Amino acid sequence: MASQGIFPDVITFNILVDALCKDGRVGQAESVVQIMIQRGIEPNTITYNSLMDGHCLQGEMDKAKQVFDLMVSKGFMVDVQSCNILINGYCKQKKISKAYKILKEMPLRGLVPNTVTYNTLIDVILDALCSNQQLSKAIELLREMKDKKLELNIVVYTIIIEGLCKAGKLDFAVEVFSYLSSNRVQPNVRSYTVMIHAFCKGGLLSEAEKLLREMGEKGCPPDGCTYDIIIRGLLNNNNASRAMRLIQEMVESRFSADASTMELIFGLLCKDVVDPALLPLLKRP
Fold first, then answer.
1. What pLDDT digit, counting tens, does each position of 235-263 carry?
2. Phi, psi dihedral angles at 145 (to 5 degrees)
3. Angle between helices 170-182 and 154-166 (to 10 degrees)
4. How far is it, in rounded angstroms, from Cα 249 to Cα 71?
């Protein structure tokens, strides 16, 4: 390019830096940045975000944080994307406290967290609920999202509901689930299935079946996983006749009994716990 009198600008260099980082060649990307500086081309936020993301992809969070700190030292360079990259990197390594710290520092830098920021944190925090007892932080983040009028879609709510269920807080999960309809958020198959599983686990089979019926009424038909979960729940609670009815319904809906369901039913058949009439249903195409 130089031999033809064409010299790369910051945009050209940024494309190269980003490509190298995504390819795992962060060291080469850093060398390109040094060439930029030597040529009097000042790296910008996009340049450093690419470098930081490259380190995060390699699991090099200390180096990513060094890049972040360099950006901070340059005053205006850190943006919401910079924070999201670092938060995501920390979350992937389950370093929740460090990710949360970056989030809390964002307003001090004049930055407003967006939906990506919160979704990243909520997902990982809930994933670590049982061992780290961070449910309160997840709820706090959800409230912050609402206060900032950020998009709260069914994916976010399902993450919260599942976290509550895993933490044994079924009453709160029911409260959040009930809240959806009043806020015009339509539950999806995943959110219904999470609640049905929680009801079955808690022995609340009537509630589980009620939700199963609601799915059809609301135009959100259950899938094979939903049927599998509620059939298991019924069989484990000695409700073979109701389980048989749902197996019939599952087959008529063109879902096949999956391996886990079949294993459970065959096991119970061997123990004469359930009616052998189940067997022909399982063999139907």
1. 888 887 788 788 878 878 877 666 667 77
2. -60, -40
3. 160
4. 59
